[in-house]
Each structure stands twice: as structure tokens, then as C-alpha cells.
């Protein structure tokens, strides 16, 4: 069987002779070519060359054409901030405070869509018979977050009609984005909706599920497969996500893979994940990558499982680590060898990392532990919530972001006892774990903490 056939069998929730394997190559393709993300994401030649290099090195069964959740938002009026090693991030919200609820149509002849179309057509012609191609689109709730900003979370409590209006428009845009890829014959539409990890199951059922089901039905009518791709700690929403009409669910390391396997089996879904993105693939050694791949393969089993990282690969991910994963996918004998010969590296103690003297600091210290707020939507909105709360609070406070793509960031995560990303710590204590607080509540928490310092 070709890799594409193995992956599509897994998508159908069938047994496969080996795990299907999809490294989500986004800006990492630029690293393989030695070009920054700012150039890579705006050139069809670069996209094709990066994907072909990833195909050569990592022997995948499927690849996304591009991993950028801001393409739609850019055309709808959101301003973007570009950086060399991450996708662009949204820095303005056209439907924010004082804005209307009107959302224009998506014109895929504009923006970067023509660049992606050329890349899709070339990949389909050159590798479409052996490689399953993914078209990644921004999920309706995340797109609504881009358009409305942090006001969306208050809207869900005070203005449900407005939320539903914007979600309906965002779903229409998502359909058009899916059509854009399906017209050129991609095999899987991945609806990437990371912001759904930040809401309750009740809000998911009320505001998200009906629109996702409408979108999945639209994709099914084309004869393609649909995947619901959620990063962040969406554990509390996992069952309601499984109840949607998607073919596949893909998650990151925040969600136990064994739980996803059980729930996916209950609802007849295929499932994927949950290689550790930063601590293993980006910052670990080849042996770490091998052992983590084995963990996922053993847990995922041989039916309907697709091995993948939980988000797009960081730009600087070492190629040998991904090649080590590919070796574990392809060779069961090498997995047996690795199980018995590789010793798990001991986790660093990070004793050399000097933390602030929180009780004696003049200001309240707000540590925001993120993957990277410039590339991760939940992380961006978590950081934004902290900044806005500090501006509102009647107490001195200082916001500090710690990205776990660095040793320093992982050190803060370990020393502060943070288990989920993104999280907010107030003076060294975890206060919000993968739940974005509203501005008023966090401002009150800051004021209360300052009073406890005895400096009010």
C-alpha cells in the first residue's frame, strides 16, 4: 500500500499494517530551505520545495499544503504581525469593541490564496498519488475570535445573538476556504479550531457544534475527509467534540491519548496525535523522539490512528528528531530495539533558574506560560487577557511571557508546577490553567494579591 492508502484507511477508522504518519510541516519547511517564514509563506516555489524536502526526509503519509490560521483573517481585515520563525499573528480585530457584526465574503483570488493554490496544484500533480494532501482551514470559532477579539468571551454570556451571527458568517467563510482546497483535489480538510479548548462543554454545544456539523457535512458532500484539529487542553470538551460529524479528531500532548482513543472508538472516529512538540521534538534528542513515538504508537493501536504532533512543527525542529520518529513508524523491529536499549533522559531540575522573590517584589508578577503567543491563538488571547487586566487593575503588576520553545520557558513551567499551556501564574502560583479569564476577574485577582503583599 502507498502511504496515502494507509492514511486514508486510518481516516476510515480501519486497521492499518503500520501507523499512519503526518508531520504537520508549516514554517518548518522554510527552515529546511534556509528561508524565513516571511518568505516561505508567500512563495509557491518555497512551499513546494519545503514540502518535497519534508517528504524526502520524513517519509510521511500525508502533509498539509500550508499551516497558517491567519490567511482568512488577513482578507477579512485583521492586521498581521510577521516574524521570521512563526506564522503571522493577528494583532487587530475588526469586530472588536465598538465594531459592527458585519463580515465580508472571502475572496480567494486575493491575499496569499493564489500562492497556496499554485502550491496545491503542483503538489497534487507531483505527489498526489502517493501522499495524502491536507487543506488546513481556520475553524469558525477561532476565526470569530480573530474578528471579535477577547470581547467574544463576554459576548457568549451577554450577547448570544451576536455570537451566533458572527459564527454563521465564519462558517460560510470556512466552507469557502474548504472549497478552495477541494477544487484542487485535496484528500483531507483539517478544521483547525484551537480556541475551542478555552470554552466549556455547554458553550461548545451551544455556539460551536452546530456550525462545525454544518461545515463537516459540506466537506463530506465533496467526498473528502474532515478532521477536527484542536490544540491546548480541550480534555473537558473531548466527548462533545467526538459527537460532531467529523471523520477524525487530532489533539496535542495536553490531552491523554488513551482517553481520546476510548472516546473516538465510542463514536466511531479515527484519531490522531499526540507527539510532544517542544520538550521532545524541538528540544529533545533522537532517543527522546523515538521513545515518544513508541508511546503514541503503543497507545494509539492499529485501528484508525494517525501519528502526528499536536500542532505545526516549530521552525527550528531538528531534522534528526523527525527522522527518528519516521524510523519508528516504518520499522517495528527498530521499535522493539528502542524499547530495550534507550534510557529515558532524566528531566532537568532547572535549579540554576532564578525565580523572582515573589512575596517581596514591589509589583504583582503575572507569569504567562505559553507555547508562543505569536504563533498560538489561545496563547495570544491568554497573554492579551493578562495585559488588559494589568491595565485595568488598581495595583502595580508586571506581565512576563515565558515561551516553552526555550529552556528558560520550560524551566519556568517546571519550577512553577504548570501542567497545561497556556497558563497564568500570579506571584508564582498557578491561577488559570488553559482557561482564559475575563478582564475584570483577573484584575480583581491582581488587586487581591497586592493587598496580601501588605502594600495597599
Which SSEs are present, and which pair or pack?
Elements: H1 3-11, E1 20-21, H2 28-33, H3 37-40, H4 44-58, E2 62-64, H5 71-75, E3 80-81, E4 89-90, H6 113-127, E5 132-138, H7 140-148, H8 151-158, H9 160-182, E6 188-192, H10 201-221, E7 225-230, H11 238-242, E8 248-251, H12 257-266, E9 270-275, H13 277-282, H14 286-300, E10 305-309, H15 319-330, H16 332-341, E11 364-370, H17 377-392, E12 397-403, H18 407-415, E13 423-426, E14 429-433, H19 439-452
Parallel strand pairs: 1-10, 2-5, 5-6, 6-7, 7-8, 8-9, 9-10, 11-12
Antiparallel strand pairs: 3-4, 11-13, 13-14
Strand content: 5-15%
Shape: globular
Classification by helices and strands: alpha/beta
Whole-number average pLDDT? 93
- Spans of at least 5 consecutive residues whose pLDDT stays below 50 are none
* CATH hierarchy class name of the largest domain: Alpha Beta
